[in-house]
Amino acid sequence: MTDIGAFNEKLVLQTIRSAPQGIGQSDVVRLSHLSRQAVSLITRRLMADGLVEQAGRRISGPGKPHTLLRVVADARLAIGVHLDPAHIAVVICDLAARPVARTTLAPPTEDPRADLERVAAAIAELSRSLGASVPAPGEGEPSTHRRLLGIGIAAPAGLDADAGILRDPPWIPGWRDVPVVDALSAVTGLPATLDKDTNAALTGEIWSRHLETSQTVLYMYVGHGVGSAVSGGGRVHRGGTTQAGEIGHLPIGRADQHCICGRHGCLCLYTDAHVLVGAAHDAGVEVSESSGTTAALEALSAAAAAGSAPARDIIGSHAGALGEAMRILAGVHDPQRIIIGGPTWPALRDVGEAEVRDALGDWLASSGGVVESSHLGDDVGAIGAASLFLEQELAPGTVAPGTA
């Protein structure tokens, strides 16, 4: 991208992007703390590169009307790939992290090479459908419209984000020590970056909703297992080895079950997806795993909505345990906002959200904080993955993990 690596250009672009309805140049100067001359010069470059356009005029007092600027959302696109045990989700997002194309593939197998070839074929097909462009060797810069930046990859831990390697992801057999960043870059010709699905999901929330950077945000990720992520100052805290937020073995104060780790009452004993499916079978609730765990949880949710007391109790128990973990983590992180999301949460939300709020009642009353469900749906992992690459390319001062 033309000069987009410069910190000031990223700062101006991000300032304009944070005002989707348009922002005057004087406001960009005020918010970026750059000189008017610098902002004017950078804005002209961004407009020439197709990233920014004029968005009408605004009258705010005497004098000339202010020309509004806004980002051209589809000028640049990022691909998000979520390697989830239940499926592989692939999306292409614009600069606002809005999906403009998406597809869902069968779950990862024990053949990573074949799986990545499936992903590459899906990316190629989605790109063709959009008319998206990518630089080809010897062809120079592609069109300024719908230019593909690269790929963000989200996956369960453990992984080595700096090296771009999946080390030992749970529930994905055959993917041990797979250099997924280099491998996917090799078959697509695009740069890629890797992070945990929990971190990706929170990045997607921050990027797509322009959450206030002054807020501390706690994200609860509900998938095959439960994980968490936390951000402060608009940046996700990843820890020293990208393993922050691994809470499956967080004791939640229950002594009725013994975990293989040696403790009692670990969160995973009550919230892993297979626990809910097993409880449904034991209670006589009709759920079939032949179509996958997500479909089984959707059947459980449908049974609850139809009035099945056992189904409601199973989801309520899951949400109660989730709420206890959130209460503990709220005491540790002191967030102003808690977001619950992940690929299986949409199926559990209707019953589960009220139970979570009950468990957090004291915290809500004393902190004035906000608890809400994610607005990104069950593709949050893939949308978050695309947001990882957008943040890496376009946010000022970012340090990219695991980039090829």
Explain the overall architecture.
The protein is of the alpha/beta class. The chain has three domains: 7-71, Arc Repressor Mutant, subunit A; 74-203 and 381-394, 2-Layer Sandwich (Nucleotidyltransferase, domain 5), CATH 3.30.420; 210-375, Nucleotidyltransferase, domain 5, CATH 3.30.420. It contains 13 helices and 15 strands. It has a five-stranded mixed beta sheet with strand order 6-5-4-7-10. A five-stranded mixed beta sheet has the order 13-12-11-14-15, with helices on both faces. A three-stranded antiparallel beta sheet has the order 1-3-2.
Helices and strands, with pairings:
Elements: H1 7-17, E1 23-24, H2 25-32, H3 36-48, E2 52-58, E3 66-71, E4 76-84, E5 87-93, E6 99-105, H4 112-130, E7 147-155, E8 159-160, E9 165-166, H5 180-188, E10 192-196, H6 197-209, E11 217-222, E12 226-232, E13 235-236, H7 268-271, H8 273-283, H9 293-305, H10 309-333, E14 337-341, H11 345-359, H12 361-367, E15 370-373, H13 380-394
Please list the strands of the largest sheet in the order they lie side by side: 6-5-4-7-10
Helix content: 40-55%
> What would the principal axes of the Cα set say about the shape?
globular
Number of strands: 15
State the domain count: 3
Major sheet characteristics: 5 strands, mixed
Classify the fold: give the CATH topology of the largest domain.
Nucleotidyltransferase, domain 5
By secondary-structure content and strand pairing, the structural class works out as alpha/beta
* CATH fourth-tier homologous superfamily of the largest domain: ATPase, nucleotide binding domain
Percent in strands: 15-25%
- Level-2 CATH architecture of the largest domain: 2-Layer Sandwich
| CATH C-level class of the largest domain | Alpha Beta
Instruction: Report the order of strands and helices.
Output: HEHHEEEEEHEEEHEHEEEHHHHEHHEH
Radius of gyration: 22 Å
Distance between the termini: 16 Å
With helices defined by DSSP (H or I, 4 residues minimum), what is the helix count? 13
- Sequence stretches where pLDDT stays below 50 over 5 or more residues: 1-5
Mean pLDDT: 91
